[in-house]
């Protein structure tokens, strides 16, 4: 009995040690429970954060797609520096196209475009579906189509028409223009609409170059059949006395070019020829023939 009692009899020091041990065990159990629960919460939180991040990324992608410039069908012959940049072309590729066009030549297919600009196959594959060429390029008329609109002159198809035989460009109709090889419904309407925009009267044949989509070859065919016979009467401006305000009223001459013209005129003590304009800084040389329709030297 005494031996049994000794097993359950502890000194004060032993009781303190047992209490401390039990306290540590309980603390460790609680700590383990809380840690395990926090892991689950963190894991669940991470899943939620991942889902939210995926949703944010998808919304960003949608927004980027909306901000991305939309590409519409276009004629690659008229690509500007800005448009070429937005299409992904390099400055060298854009310059090659502009130099080619400066020679009055035209790109008539995706293959021509790549040969001129040297763009990569991948860029060409991305751009070519948006290329839009004139109808006379994509849907050429048969070679045996008669270019002569006058059935009474079938025997003279190969003989150049005289000035008297040609029809006045200021009275020609769209149906007559469509008889020229390379001029379809759209181009004939553009010619008539342009004539209306400039006052219903052409000044000279050169104004045909202002009609969008007319190639030099087609313009040549038109001039074989038509010409300006009743030109619009305009008051010509003396280049050697013209003021800046008079000059800027002429198409393609802005205030900067007008200032350069007057400055060059002063340095030269007057222009001797209209051709001297080509030496003026920033003068639009490609529009020389149009601009000089309104000028004279006195």
Automatic annotation (TrEMBL):
GO biological process: protein secretion by the type II secretion system
Record field: transmembrane: 16-35
Superkingdom of the source species: Bacteria
CC per GO annotation: type II protein secretion system complex
Alphabetized UniProt keyword annotations: Membrane, Transmembrane, Transmembrane helix
PANTHER family: ENDONUCLEASE/EXONUCLEASE/PHOSPHATASE FAMILY DOMAIN-CONTAINING PROTEIN 1 (PTHR21180), ENDONUCLEASE_EXONUCLEASE_PHOSPHATASE FAMILY DOMAIN-CONTAINING PROTEIN 1 (PTHR21180:SF32)
The protein's name in its UniProt record: Helix-hairpin-helix domain-containing protein
């Amino acid at each position: 009995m005494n031996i049994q009692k000794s097993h359950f009899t502890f000194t004060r020091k032993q009781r303190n040690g047992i209490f401390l041990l039990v306290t540590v065990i309980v603390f460790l159990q609680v700590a383990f429970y809380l840690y395990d629960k926090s892991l689950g919460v963190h894991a669940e939180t991470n899943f939620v954060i991942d889902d939210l991040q995926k949703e944010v990324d998808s919304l960003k992608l949608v927004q980027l797609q909306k901000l991305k410039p939309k590409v519409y069908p276009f004629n690659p012959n008229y690509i500007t520096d800005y448009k070429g940049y937005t299409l992904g072309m390099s400055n060298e590729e854009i310059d090659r196209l502009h130099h080619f066009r400066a020679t009055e030549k035209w790109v008539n297919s995706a293959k021509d475009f790549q040969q001129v600009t040297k763009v990569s196959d991948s860029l060409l594959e991305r751009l070519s579906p948006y290329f839009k060429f004139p109808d006379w390029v994509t849907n050429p008329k048969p070679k045996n189509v008669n270019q002569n609109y006058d059935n009474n002159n079938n025997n003279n198809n190969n003989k150049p028409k005289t000035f008297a035989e040609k029809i006045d460009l200021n009275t020609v109709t769209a149906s007559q223009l469509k008889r020229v090889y390379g001029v379809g419904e759209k181009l004939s309407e553009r010619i008539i609409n342009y004539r209306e925009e400039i006052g219903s009267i052409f000044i000279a044949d050169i104004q045909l170059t202002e009609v969008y989509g007319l190639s030099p070859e087609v313009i040549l065919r038109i001039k074989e059949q038509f010409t300006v016979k009743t030109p619009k009467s305009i008051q010509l401006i003396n280049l050697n006395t013209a003021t800046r305000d008079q000059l800027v009223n002429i198409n393609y001459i802005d205030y900067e070019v007008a200032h350069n013209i007057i400055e060059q005129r002063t340095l030269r003590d007057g222009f001797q020829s209209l051709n001297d304009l080509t030496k003026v800084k920033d003068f639009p040389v490609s529009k020389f023939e149009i601009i000089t329709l309104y000028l004279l030297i006195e």
